[in-house]
Amino acid sequence: MPDTPTPTADPVDVPARQPLPGTRIIAYRVPDWGIEGPYVHMDAADIHARYAQHAGRAGDYPARTAGFGRQTDGQGLDNFLRGSLNFWGLSEARMTDDGVIRYRQTRNHSTTTFAPDRTSGILINRPDEQVAQAAYRVTAPNGVTQIWRGSAVRDAIGRCRRKPVVGWPAGWAHLMPDTTLRFDPGGFPWSTPEIYTAEAAEEPASWGAPCTECKYPYAEHDLARLWPRALADGTGCTCWDYTPPPA
Prior knowledge:
By secondary structure, this protein is an alpha+beta fold. Helices cover 12% and strands 22% of the residues.
């Protein structure tokens, strides 16, 4: 994937105290009586993996950005918006139909524009909706390919999305523009990326009997040994052995 995001629109400053274009974004819990007017919750927003950010100048105070530089990653933007919208009572953010997000700390502040890199994929923040196929062809970092149930892929992605120990690389999961999935469990600080890919596949006639230890079908024992159901030291599952096919 390219290192530099390609913005989908030229960032345009919105003068202070003028309405931001697009649909309002919220991050707080929706009250029982609802919210007046259209909105998109951060839990349901399509946040891309990379953005180009532009700090505008059309306000009385400097724009606040989601980190230094011209680019920011989607997870960082997600964290920034959740924290800002919940902490600063006067903060506002809106998303237009093309996915561009505009944020300002108060109506007197300048606006920061976040333009998505559409080639980078979308954060998987709604696995039940975004990973909805019955079966996926999963390719591990070592090139081994297996057919997993959709539920097994969602379990793996759930593990990737867990918050890591402070200072350790975080896992991630992205829904790519071609509908394939890419996910990485993260790991130790010195770990290299271990990226899995998954694409929709035809569901087999039978998944077979489940393993008595991990409860997953034998066909889903992860041959790259990165998941709890197939630990590298052989504990926790006795059926993890893999014999490479003849060349």
